[in-house]
Every structure is written in structure tokens, then in C-alpha cells.
Amino acid sequence: MAEKIAIVDYGSGNLRSVQKALQRAAHEAGVAASVVVTAEADVIAKADRIVLPGVGAFGAGMEGLRARAGVPEAMEQAVLAAGRPFLGICVGMQLLADCGREFGVHDGLGWIAGEVTALPESGSAYRTPHMGWNAVRVESPHPVLENITEEAFYFAHSYHFVPENDIHLIGTCYHGAQLAAIVARDNIFGVQFHPEKSQTAGLALLANFLQWSPA
Questions:
Q1: How far apart, in whole angstroms, are the C-alpha atoms of residue 161 and residue 163?
Q2: Which one from 76, 90, 150, 151 is the annotated catalytic residue?
Q3: Is 63 known to be catalytic?
Q4: Where do the domains of the chain lie, and which CATH numbers do they carry?
Q5: Closest by alpha carbon to 108, among 188, 44, 181?
Q6: How far apart are alpha carbons 151 and 192 in whole angstroms?
Q7: 142 is known as an active-site residue
Q8: pTM of this prediction?
Q9: Is 196 a catalytic residue?
Q10: Of the listed 106, 160, 168, 194, which one is catalytic?
Q11: HSE-up of 215 (CA within 13 Å, CB side)?
Q12: Nearest in space to 8 (alpha carbons), one of 58, 107, 99, 78
């Protein structure tokens, strides 16, 4: 039976490209998966895997989530209570933090301790926003990174996740400073880059996510 993968629609855009990338990754890996884009709490609560993509500002993202009736609660039920695999992408990864400091201070989901702050000022060599390809260094082994050691992924962001505990820092990149590129704990995995725009390496990561069975 095909697993149901729910991509959470909270008005943040980039949903269809994530859906197509997951469908392609599933096909190439031989994984039976039904990938749906949804804002329905019931669908999210029953999904086998949850994906939260995102572009834009932290505060607007949290506002969009809260505006979908029952969606934050459905995500908590599926991810925190039932332990189903979760993937956060770009702003979807940042929303895992306790708070974001973009255009004010905004509460996040609080699933991984830390905060989201502006990229450090580092001169003209490393401009903000951080746009384009950048090598990601794996700091700690993880099943979603199987056969991925140091690959280039596509980034597009002006703020970055600063985890409170280094144990949650799984991968880093350098853009004027060492930045969190991947964070994770338990059944929760988040990436600052866009795997759906990262060609072979991105598809490999998505395929690993689709086959990941957290302990």
C-alpha cells in the first residue's frame, strides 16, 4: 500500500515543485507514495509523512499556519504524538525554532530549541540574501543523509536557524560564517536549502526521507 505524504499548504508557495520532486524521488527509488498538497487538518493528521515547505518571512509563515483551522494541532498529533517522519524545508525548517526575529519577534513551533536570526554581516564577498549553490558539510550521521557526505545544495534565505543545542545540528554550510544547513531530532528533520531545486543530491535526500523509519 502506498504511503500518504502530506505537503502542508499554509500559503507559503513553492508547493507544486516540492510535490513534483517528491513524486520523482519516490519513482526513482521504487517507493510507493501518494503525495498530496493539503490544508485539511484531517488529511495531515492521518498522513504517514509530513512535509512543511516554505518561502518568505517567519512571522507570515506562522500566521499562515495558525489561519488553517486545526492544522497546527494536526501536525502536533502526527509528528509529536504519533512520531511520524517530518521534513521542514527552508522557512518550514525555520518554523521549528522557538522564535524568529524577522520583522519583530514571533513564536515558532518550538519543536527544536533555538531561534532564527538575520544572517551575519560579512562584507561584499558573502551577500544577503544567501542565494545559490553551497556545499553542505555533514556534521553528524543521519539516515536521511545516507550516501550524502558533502554535496552542494541550493539556498535562498536571509535568516538562519541558530539551534540551542549542538546535538541538533546535523549539517552546516559556510556563507561568511558557519551556518546551520540541517537540523534534526527524533523523527523531525529540517533543511535550510531547497532539495526540490538541488537536482541529483536533492532527489537523493528526498528519497532517503521517504524510506526513513525513525526509531
A1: 6
A2: 90
A3: no
A4: 3-211 (3.40.50.880)
A5: 188
A6: 14
A7: no
A8: 0.96
A9: yes
A10: 194
A11: 3
A12: 78
Mean pLDDT of 69-75: 97
Helix/strand/coil (H, E, C) string of the chain? CCEEEEEECCCCCCHHHHHHHHHHHHHHHCCCEEEEEECCHHHHHHCCEEEECCCCCHHHHHHHHHHCCCHHHHHHHHHHHCCCCEEEECHHHHCCCCEECCCCCEECCCCCCEEEEECCCCCCCCCCCEEEEEEEEECCCCHHHCCCCEEEEEEEECEEEEECCHHHEEEEEECCCEEEEEEEECCEEEECCEHHHCHHHHHHHHHHHHHCCCC
Residue type at position 156 = A
**Catalytic position from the list 102, 115, 151, 196:** 196
* 107 C-beta neighbours (distance < 10 Å), count: 14
127 pLDDT tier (thresholds 50, 70, 90): confident
pLDDT in tens, 7-20: 999 998 789 999 99
Tell me the residue length of the chain.
215
Residue type, 131: M
Omega cis (within 30) before 129: yes
